[in-house]
Amino acid sequence: MKFIHLTDTHMNAAGKQDGLFAKVHMADNVRKVINHAKESGIEPAFVLITGDLSHEGDAADYAYIRTVLDECSERIGAPVHVVLGNHDHRGPFREGYLMEAPSEEPYYYSVMYGGLRLIGLNTQIPGDHAGELDERQLSWLSEQLKEAAPQGTIIGLHHPVLSIEGMDGSHLLKNRAVFGDLIAGTDVIGVLAGHVHSNNVGTFRGICAVAASGTAFAGERADPDTYAMVNAIGYNVVSVNAGEGITVRTVELPTGREELVRFPIALLAAQH
Ligand SMILES: [Fe+2]
Ligand SMILES: [Fe+2]
Questions:
Q1: How far is the CA of 150 from the centre of ligand 2 (A)?
Q2: 252-269 pLDDT, tens per residue?
Q3: Which domains does the chain have, with CATH numbers?
């Protein structure tokens, strides 16, 4: 079994794109990725998007994102599951994307695919760029993991648990130590995140952990004090190897990698 991991799509409704990244059509990037996966013959069980679906979107933006992702789902022939990132907003997401009453309730869930369990968690804190799992999700997760899934569990969340070279700890899940204690020794075989806009793979409590680059743009250190955002489009294909963990294959689509904007590193947290 395999699935596709996308992240940081940063989409907004047509004509409302954030001026900083106006040279990139974020929704088209997602369509390009799905077309590339389809033409490559990848038949995923599902597509997981680990947050920053929108760039400070309102309900209309989320309704647009829903139509784009519904198209993508039909094209690739698989459902799309999403989690929320720091640039997302719970109320507008619930209203525009889930088509339900707006509320600030965290969005998290568990679904099964042929013995593989996918758990999506909400690390986004309203009004904050940092990420944390609230007590309610931690106790819910602990209950879920009491019973192992036949092919293991994948957890999708926005803020990474891995230390990232060249970035300070403010980008990481704040309470990753508690989260680590909770998943260590369980059936969790992968922790997939985004947020940092670069590809990082490592282990966390012995579990494969990923912070992926995403579809909107990539972040690269330009000099000791400055970060450059460049035009780059990537996605990961994750193969679930029965009883033997996962393999993560990164695919990068051709672009000019032209620089879109530069930020002092001190201001980085607000931009991705
Ligand atoms: Fe983010
Ligand atoms: Fe982002």
A1: 32
A2: 999 999 999 898 887 776
A3: 2-271 (3.60.21.10)
